[in-house]
Amino acid sequence: MTTGSLAVEVCDAGDCASATTRLGRVPGGPVAREAVVTFDELGRDFETGEVTVTVRLSDARDATVAMAERPVELTPFFPNGASCDGDGYVSGQLRMTTADRR
User: Fold this and answer.
1) Backbone φ and ψ of 87, nearest 5°
2) How many separate domains does the chain show?
3) Which of 55-65 are b and which e, b meaning 16 or more Cβ less than 10 Å from the residue's Cβ?
4) Strands of 4-11's sheet, edge to edge?
């Protein structure tokens, strides 16, 4: 798959938020892709703790290529150290595997 989109939904005990990221063409036949969705794109903040993340990877024709729903632990993150980053950031990750293909 060279182009398409990645739809992400994040749910906590209070509510859900979603965002879609377009995936552009990558030369050379990539074997892996990475996408980042920010709280700004989701339209709200999430606190640390467990959330449920649903990810749908679609091709250029919007056909589902892979889908996953998993619990994700959101944790504090201080990329420059706590003295520089103050309250830090909240982050989590979900890694899709070949088992998620449809």
Assistant:
1) -75, -10
2) 1
3) bbbbeeeeeeb
4) 16-23, 4-11, 49-59, 64-77, 89-91
Q: State the CB neighbour count (10 A cutoff) for residue 22.
A: 10
DSSP string, 48-69: SEEEEEEEEEEETT--EEEEEE
Could you tell me the pTM of the whole model? 0.87
Torsion of CA 40, 44, 45, 49, to 10 degrees: -120
List, for residues 58-100, the tens digit of each pLDDT value.
Answer: 999 999 999 999 999 999 989 898 888 888 889 999 999 989 9
**DSSP SS3 for 90:** strand
Domain span at residue 50 reads 4-26+33-100
DSSP structure class, residue 19 = E
